[in-house]
Amino acid sequence: MSGTLLEVRDLSVVFDGFRAIDGVDFTVEQGELRFLIGPNGAGKTTLIDVITGLTRPASGSVRFEGWDLVGRKEHEIVRMGVGRTFQTSVVFEQLTVVENLDLAASFRRPLWSLARRRRGVSAAVEAAMATTGLDALAARPAGVLSHGQRQWLEIGMLIAQRPRLLLLDEPVAGMSGEERSRTGELLVEIAKDHTVIVIEHDMDFLRRYASQVTVLHEGKVLVEGSVDQVRSDPRVQEVYLGR
Ligand code: ADP
Asked: 56 C-alpha vs ligand 1 centroid, how far in Å?
């Protein structure tokens, strides 16, 4: 995979006169695992909200595979291949793991194919289970899963929808050390077949799993580069690491 998948140009978002995003350029290539970091209020979630159609920008463009996303409805953007998780989990607790995955997969499928689906789970669901390692938990209700397992299920639900771009908002928040490592390995695995943008704060986590990092600060791109470049940049140390 190569070429530009997402191209954000001169983007600004204004809330009641306050510029939450202020002239941001942000380009992500096919197959990248990009981390988006920055202090609270930097504009990370707002940027993802614009890409996914939740927030309309005051100006600027968002191109995904060359198509302008600005002004499109959220569900249209999902159908175009952009999937997203939120900080709060959205799994259906009474349904089993495999039912959750199946439901997510069916959102991108025409109704006539649902009857056929009864004969067994689709290839997309099989693939989502294999990637997330949820096979062993397939028959468990999602309500009994640990916090980490729920996050993996939610990522699996996204994968089952076969997106080309995944946007993950702090997927390791609240996870144990072991769960964080598993999630990091999962992100690397997913990035083999997808383009992934992850909002994450933890520098140790970034050091282990990130390749390219974009640092936002006060609605602007402060620095962009490899983890080492970003960590050693004095501007980042000042605003982000607090040194
Ligand atoms: P981050 O995700 O980096 O913590 P956000 O994108 O959530 O930052 O927020 C960026 C800024 O925009 C913050 O100052 C926040 O208070 C403000 N903001 C975000 N959403 C809204 C909104 N719906 N209305 C008004 N201000 C908002």
From this structure: 13
pLDDT in tens, 3-42: 999 999 999 999 999 999 999 999 999 999 999 999 989 9
For the cut 90, the answer to whether the pLDDT of residue 81 exceeds it is yes
Please tell me whether residue 178 adopts helix, strand or coil conformation. helix
CA-nearest of 186, 174, 163, 209 to 34 is 209
Give the architecture-level CATH label for domain 1-81+164-243: 3-Layer(aba) Sandwich (3.40)
pLDDT band at 75 (very low <50, low <70, confident <90, very high): confident
Ligand 1 is surrounded, with C-beta below 6 A, by: 15, 20, 38, 40-46
pTM, whole model, 2 decimals? Answer: 0.91
Q: How far apart are CA 5 and CA 29, in angstroms?
A: 5
- Ligand 1 midpoint to CA 184 (Å): 26
Domain borders along the chain are 1-81+164-243, 92-162
